[in-house]
Amino acid sequence: MNDNFTEEITPLLIEWRRTLHQNPELGFMEYYTTYRIGKELEKLGFIIHVGVDALESASRMGVPDEPLLTEQENKALHWGVEESWMEKMRGGNTGVVAIWDAEKNGEHIGFRFDIDALPIKETDAKDHFPSNHGFRSQEDGVMHACGHDGHTAIGLGLAHFIAQYNDSLTGRYTLIFQPAEEGGRGAKAITDKGWLDEVDQFYTGHIGINPYPVGTIAATTRGFLASTKLNAHFKGVASHAGMKPEEGKNALLAAATAATQLYAIPRHSGGPTRINVGKMSAGSGRNIIPEASYLEIETRGETKEINRYVLEEAKRTLHAAAMMHDVEVMIDFVGETEEIECDDSLITTITEACQSSNYVTEVLPFAKVSGSEDASFMTNTVQNNGGKATYMLFGTELPYGHHHPAFDYQETVISVAVDAYIHILKGGMSHE
C-alpha cells in the first residue's frame, strides 16, 4: 500500500476546496455542489443516490420558498448541471449518498460530510486568503464561512482512497454528503431514509471550532446542545398612525415585546440553556401602524428534555406577546438537533490508528464544544441500533471565527483529516 496517498492527493483536495468555495450554495439549494460531488463519485465507481433517492423529502425542515429554489435551479443549469440530474433534485432535494461494498466480510462504516454554505457576504480584504489567491465567493451574499467546502473535499479524498485500495478493504462504506446542516435542517431527512440503520461505526467531524494547531485532532467532542429553530409571524392591522392609531394592531410591538421577554426565560437547573433572537423585521413606514412582523429564533438545551423546556417557554412567551397587543401569531418550526454523546471506546481506536500517520501529530481524547449539530440524528440512530459513533475536530488556526465574513482556515487541515480517516480505515483492513 502506498503510504504517500495523502501527499499525492493533496493538490486535488485544494482544487476541490477552492472550486466549491467560489461556488457556494445555501441549504437545500446545493444543486451544483451535489452535481460536482456525484459526478466525481460516479467516476470512481461508487453506487450513488442523489436528491430524492438520498433523502426523505417530507422530513426536510426549513426548505426555501419556491421562487428561491427555481432561481438557484436555473443558475445551476447555467453552470452546467445536467437536466437528468436536476430532475432528481428539483424542489430542494439535494445531497448525495455513496455506497461502496468491498464484497468481503467486515463492518459497515459510515461517514458524513456537510456541503452547504451561509448567507454571508465574503470580505474582499486583501489579507483574506481566498481573496488574494483568487477563489473568493462569486455569489454575492453567500459564503462558505464554516468550512463545509473543506469537509466536502475531505469526503472526496476519502472516496478516492476507498476506490484505489478496494482490494485491501473489507465490509461496506457509506459516505453521506449532507445538505442543509446550517440551521439543523438536513440530517434528519437523510437519517429517515434509513442509511444509518445498519452502520457499525460512524464518523463525522468539523474543521476548526477550537483553534488547535494543524495536526492536532480530537477523537470525540463533548457539549453539543439539542436545539430547535423557529420562525414567528405576527399579524396585526395597519392604520394611520396620526389619524386612527386606535384602529391599528401593532405587530411590531408584539415582536419587540416577544424579543425582549424571550431572554427572560428562567435558566434550567438540569443543565445549560440558550435562547437567541437572530432576526427581526417589521413595518413599512413611520406613519403606519405595522400590520406584520417576523422573528427568527432558536432554543438550545443540554438535553432534548431541557431544550423542550426552553421551547415550550418560548412558545408561551410568543403567544402572550401576541395576546398583549391583540395580534395573531403563527409559529413555523424550521430546524432541529439533538444532543451528541460520543462513544469513548473510539478514543483508543482513533488514537492507535493515527500513531503511524505522518499528518496527525496529536490526538486529544475529547474537545469541549458548544453550539449544536444535526449530525446528532445520525450518531444517535447508529448508537440506538448497537453501533458506535463519534464527532471529531480537526485543528487549524482561526484568524476569524466561524460564520464571520473573513472566516478562513489553514488548507493543510484538509490533508490531516483525510489522513486521519484513512488510518481509521486501515485499522480494519485486510493484510493478506
From TrEMBL:
Cofactor: how bound: The Mn(2+) ion enhances activity.
GO biological process annotation, one example: folic acid catabolic process
Record-level Gene Ontology MF annotations: dipeptidase activity; metal ion binding; para-aminobenzoyl-glutamate hydrolase activity
Cofactor: Mn(2+)
Keyword Acetylation: no
Binding locations of Mn(2+): C146, H148, E182, H206, H403
InterPro entries recorded: Amidohydrolase, Bact_exopeptidase_dim_dom, Peptidase_M20, Peptidase_M20/M20A_hydrolases, Peptidase_M20_dimer
The entry's keywords: Manganese, Metal-binding
Domain Peptidase M20 dimerisation as annotated: residue spans: 230-318
A Pfam entry, by short name: M20_dimer
Assigned GO CC terms: cytoplasm
UniProt keyword Metal-binding, yes or no: yes
NCBIfam families found in the cross-reference section: amidohydrolases
Protein's name according to its UniProt entry: Aminobenzoyl-glutamate utilization protein A
Annotated source species: Thalassobacillus cyri
